[in-house]
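In this section we walk through a basic example: taking a raw amino acid sequence and producing a predicted 3D structure, encoded as C-alpha cells. The instruction is simple. Fold the sequence below.
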Amino acid sequence: MQSQFKKRPFSIKSVILLMTFGLIPIALAAQSYQISKGEGEVMVTGTSTLHDWEEVAEQKSGSIALDNTGELPKIKTLKFTVEAESLKSGKGAMDKNTYKALNTKKHKEIVFVLKNVKSVSPVVSSSDKYKVVATGDLTISGNTNTIDLPFNLTINGDKVLLKGKKALKMTDYGVEPPKALLGTITTGDEIEVHFNTVWK
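The resulting C-alpha cell sequence is shown next.
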C-alpha cells in the first residue's frame, strides 16, 4: 500500500501550477474597458419655477469588465464616477448653487458601483446590442442608495457603448433642491440622468 502512494507524489509546486493553468481561461474570458473621457456624454436635466435646465459632466471616469464568450455577455464589474464640480450648466451662478447643494467641498465625486445584473436580453434588430438592467449603489453627496439602472449595451469590436437614462429625486440623497434670488426660484426635486458613454 505504501508503494502505491509513493507512485503519485503531489508537491505544493505541482498543485500551484495546476491551479494557475486552470484559472487562465477564466482570466482571459473577462475583458476590461476604460471609459473614453473625450467621447460620449453624461447630462443631468431638471426643472425649476423659472425654466428647465441641464448640466453636462465634463469629467468622468470608470471601468467595465465583460465576459462575452457565451450567448449573452456577462458584466463582471462596472464602476462609473463623475467629478461633482465638473457639472456645468453654462451659468456660473447656477453651478455655484449646485455645488453648494451637493456639498462638493466634502463630497467630490458621484459614484455608481455595480452589485449584480438583473437581466440581459438581446435587441432583436441588432446582433451586438443588448438591453440590461443592473443593480448597484449610487452615491451622491455622501449618501448611498441601491438603484436599478436600465441601459443599452453595445459591443463593437474594441469598443463598448452604454446608453440610458435614470430618474432620481435629490431629496433621496439628502440634497435640498437649489434655490436662487432669495428663494423666488426653486429647482424641482426630480432630475433625470442621461448617459451615452464610450468605453475602450
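Looking at the output, two observations stand out. Residues 12-29 form the longest helix (18 residues). Confidence is low (pLDDT under 50) at residues 1-10, 15-27. In the next section we compare this with other chains.
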